[in-house]
């Protein structure tokens, strides 16, 4: 069994829990509150900067030239292309540049970004790859599910179209092919570390969306 198949099966229940989150269900129906989506947009913009850094380190650790190009390009796309989408939402939801820059990372965003950047710097290339895969893959699968259930005139259609689009899914499939090729050369101990990294990142994906729905801040600051 390929690494990607094994990882997906091991975490299938977690994926279904992610699909069932109120954030994703209400996003599909277009009933998600603007406050929750604005909270998500700000935190996701912060997240993408850290994700781009982790992808850049992944590129530096890659085993061959093609992989360096793949993840260096992905780092650029994470920050430039997807930030363009977020900028349009910020304008639509009246989120100023000052508000974005002055809004600190939530506990969930801080945990997730710290995990990815720490893993990128401290672990081997295969393990770094595994930690980065859930953001690609789970977003793509959630996007596919949402577009299939999206309500007409959905105010969040631009988000739906981005993560369910052919271009994004092609990029995801390329990453899956890369990690399977790399995993095929790994020993058993490294494979288990890869599975641990994938699962932890998948859990943090769940936490990120759940936190956005409830607009959670750091404990004790929600009432400040």
UniProtKB/TrEMBL annotation:
Pathway: Cofactor biosynthesis; thiamine diphosphate biosynthesis. The gene is tenA. Keywords: Hydrolase, Thiamine biosynthesis. Its EC number is 3.5.99.2. Catalyzes an amino-pyrimidine hydrolysis reaction at the C5' of the pyrimidine moiety of thiamine compounds, a reaction that is part of a thiamine salvage pathway. The keyword ATP-binding does not apply. Residues 22-214 form the Thiaminase-2/PQQC domain. InterPro entries: Haem_Oase-like_multi-hlx (IPR016084), Thiaminase-2/PQQC (IPR004305), Thiaminase_II (IPR027574), Thiamine_Salvage_TenA (IPR050967). The lineage of its organism: Bacteria, Pseudomonadati, Pseudomonadota, Gammaproteobacteria, Moraxellales. Belongs to the TenA family. This is Aminopyrimidine aminohydrolase. It comes from Acinetobacter towneri. Pfam families: TENA_THI-4. Gene3D superfamilies: Heme oxygenase-like. It catalyses: 4-amino-5-aminomethyl-2-methylpyrimidine + H2O = 4-amino-5-hydroxymethyl-2-methylpyrimidine + NH4(+); thiamine + H2O = 5-(2-hydroxyethyl)-4-methylthiazole + 4-amino-5-hydroxymethyl-2-methylpyrimidine + H(+). It comes from the Bacteria. The keyword Hydrolase applies.
């Amino acid at each position: 069994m390929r690494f990607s198949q094994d990882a997906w099966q091991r975490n299938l229940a977690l994926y279904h829990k992610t699909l069932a989150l109120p954030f994703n269900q209400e996003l599909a129906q277009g009933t998600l509150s603007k406050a929750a989506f604005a909270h998500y947009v700000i935190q996701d913009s912060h997240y993408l900067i850290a994700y781009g850094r982790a992808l850049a380190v992944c590129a530096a650790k890659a085993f061959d030239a093609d992989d360096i190009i793949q993840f260096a390009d992905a780092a650029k796309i994470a920050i430039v292309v997807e930030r363009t989408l977020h900028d349009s939402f910020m304008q639509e939801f009246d989120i100023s540049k000052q508000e974005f820059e002055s809004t600190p990372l939530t506990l969930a965003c801080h945990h997730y970004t710290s995990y990815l950047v720490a893993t990128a710097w401290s672990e081997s290339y295969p393990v770094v790859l595994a930690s980065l895969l859930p953001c690609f893959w789970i977003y793509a699968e959630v996007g596919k599910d949402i577009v299939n259930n999206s309500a007409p005139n959905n105010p969040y259609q631009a988000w739906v179209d981005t993560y369910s689009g052919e271009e994004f899914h092609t990029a995801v499939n390329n990453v899956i092919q890369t990690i399977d090729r790399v995993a095929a050369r790994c020993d058993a101990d490294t494979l288990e570390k890869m599975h641990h990294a994938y699962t932890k990142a998948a859990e943090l994906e769940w936490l990120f969306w759940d936190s956005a729905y409830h607009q959670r801040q750091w404990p004790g600051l929600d009432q400040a």
